[in-house]
What does this fold into?
Amino acid sequence: MYLNCHTYYSLRYGTFSEIELLQLAKDHGVTQLVLTDINNTSACLNFVRKASEYDVRPILGIDFRNGVEPCFVGVAKNNEGFLELNDFLSHHIHNEKKIPEIAPQFKEVFVIYPFEKVLQHEKKTFAEHEFIGVSVNELKRLRFSKLLEQRDKIVLLQPVTFRNKRDFNAHRLLRAIDNNTLLSMLSVTEQARDDEHMYAIPNLAAYFSEHSFILENTQRLMDACSIYFDFTTDREPQNLSKYLGSTEEDELFLEQLCQEGLPLRYPDINQAVLDRLEKELYLIKEMNFVSYFLINWDIITHARKQNFFYVGRGSGANSIVAYLLFITDVDPMELDLYFERFINLYRVNPPDFDIDFSHRDRPVMTQYIFNRFENVALLGTYVTFQSRGVIRELGKVFGLPKDEIDLLCNGNVEASRLDNISALVLKYTQLLHGMPNYLSIHAGGILITEKPIHWFSATNMPPKGFPTTQFDMVIAEDVGIFKFDILAQRGLSKIKETLDILERDRPEEFAKFDIHDVKAFKKDPKVNNLVKTAQCMGCFYVESPAMRMLLKKLEVDTYLGLVAASSIIRPGVSKSGMMREYILRHRNKGRAEELAHPVMLEIMPETYGVMVYQEDVIKVAHHFADLDLGEADVLRRGMSGKFRSREEFQKVQDKFMDNCRKKGYAEKLIQEIWNQVASFAGYAFAKGHSASYAVESYQSLFLRAYYPLEYMVAVLNNGGGFYKPEFYVHEARMLGATIHPPCVNRSNADNRIYGKNLFLGLGYLRELEQRVMERILKERYLHDDFRSLEDFLDRLIISIEQVSILIRIDAFRFTETNKHELLWKAHLFLNKTKKIDHPKLFAPRHQHFQIPSLYSTNLEVAFTQLELLGFSLCSPFELLVEAPLNSSGSKDLERYLNRNIDIYGYLITVKRTRTQKGKAMFFATLLDQQGQVFDTVLFPPVAEKYMFRGRGIYRFYGKVVSEFGFLSIEVIKLQKQDYIQDPRYADMKTSVKVFDQKKTGEKAGAREENIEVRE
It folds into this structure.
């Protein structure tokens, strides 16, 4: 009887989920109803999937509105009608068009106009598929309306938006948030009536006793509707089913591609390779995944033709077919990758390919996919209301001052001391928490379907300009649509740009190697030594302090060791305590045999009986707990959290426990193994995933080993990595580069390397306008370098404020004139008259001004760089009020082992974490006075007393300790050191420390090639 039901996917309007709607229907004895969210179809598929569990027959529709103003309700007679509705809604969303007051001539859709709208537009004639909707509240007015004569056209249109008073209050808050207004100022026209709730069927019958024909009309309309989506385990995949046109052609083509790839991947083909290939091809055909592979092959083939870098990873990396098709660069034979993780007869969904492209290339590849295939959309995902965000929104809605909102957000308030308004904010925060706020885009998911995308949902059009589904990946998989993951990654951009720099500046070196010859890199002692010594700054996935620490502890110097390390570092392994156990077993031969359960050691000999990869969960579930492979894969997928709440995961967990007990395992052992499985919690990698990452790491490490300066420039030009740009500039200096501040003649927007001279990009100047930078580069490109400041000012339209930035950073040092003098010249040159924005016919005559002799100190230069670049190019230790009292550094740690050390360090990064008891502690990485890295740890007692107070130099006193050969300092106390007062705003005579008063650029120290930068 209900033709207009809303969930919280009627964004910032509805107040409960589609599951709660079904429960509400069951509680009221309602056996069929129509889900009609406002301009949204996000809940539709899951509503259909779950309806049978609540004895409800689902029907789908859309409540079309402009804002909150109703236009009409469309109810799909069938799936074709749902397609029509989605096409119609999507067209208006994509083109930002208003919904028309009168519906189009749908073929398989019932259209219901609200009673008020019919009166307003004086609509008197209705097509066969059109109806008038009357709510319980509008019955009184119907009695006195001529519309009562349209007996066959009147149906019940009672909106269902609330369950109770609390829902209505939540609705009003959501409307106030949406309108960015105080609750007290919220217009009644912006909210629903408080009677939009569900009545039990007998109550409805009583209300409409005088107009029973309305209920009969409604029943007939609903009986004429039927919607079906297949959610069974043996459902047909909904992806594009054929690549070439027929299954036979696809299968032959896949076999042909594999045969072409065999000699390229395996120069010495053996029987094991052929057997594995035959087995995989059989299963791929049996499971109807041929087109899935061919589409991925199509995507990477186009990328290869464009010379785009990519990395294929995910569970598909376990496949020899993927390796032969060049979708991945991971050899599953070399790594003995677990085949069943890739594909098995129990598995409904296809193997997962994540294909990473450079962040510069991904938009091009996405556009190619949309052009190449017919039914394509990006996969949607919902951003939900989170506690702190809701508190801020509700605080504004209730009119709380910012200070009080901040206090509530921090959570440092006692409930007993809250006033009524603050208490309401916290109360309704709990209610709104987790509700969808707005639709976003999945990180990389693209859907390519056999049927039109709108068969399944309407699509939004985000700023990226590609249609995006109104449902997420979980329900997509449930209905049989499997995503293609096309992701962006800056690590690949760094590799690509390094090669571009080498090809441009050192073509003979560029010709010496093939970046895809990873097998050669794996055997290179210079590359492996970088891994062993953890000299990995800037290198993909291996540069973080935690990874550097792990590599040293494991003494990793091989590709296979790095594959394991890439997975061990993940929170799933470390949280379970098995990372430490793995290190112990790795370093102490015999420990595994002594401590590991024999079955676990037999299952995972190469990882010493420790679960490291996602495949290990399947192995343990299958061999240790006797689950079949299908059940084991449910367990593995459950780790991701996406399915953890689902009943099938709970059933498998119960069976895991029961089977282990039947096999006679001790309860303590069962719990220990289960805790290891559970602790993965979605953070573990597939082994093929780790192997793919390790391939890219080795490519990065090779470039850093042999072409360190070019590589570091590429790192800087592509957004850095784990650390701030300042530290990659420092690393370049440590690797032999001479660092120069931006220059109008030598710098580009990005950084540029000339031999060993690294010129910082103009883009580092925070206040330099983009358009000014573009003008400089264009003018230089078209008409050669600038010869002087006057020449620069003649050729460019620029304000005194913008040219001052360039002068202050010393971007005109090629003129061999002090920057203070240049500033005087610029001010005198740029008078207040408006410059003519066209080329001058004749070179202008310049007036010569007599300017007093001026000079700059190194200290002024350093502080100017701090202001304009965000960091200085001199050593930060030179900026201290008091010089360090010692020169202790990383080189001294071994000498001080198990003793206390006094050491100064410039802060690189701090990681805050908590102990199992919830107490805060810190791990900090710093640079010593010699520019080397060292690590510190502040345990809770020290962390309570001392805090890091932002960037700067700290003096530490602590004990040097070693764990598995990794040296660090357990801090006892620390003190932040003061910088000297900025001399540009202080009297130099009163400064505590006086720098060398030499003129910086005293005749500016010669040409660019000879400039020396203070270390």
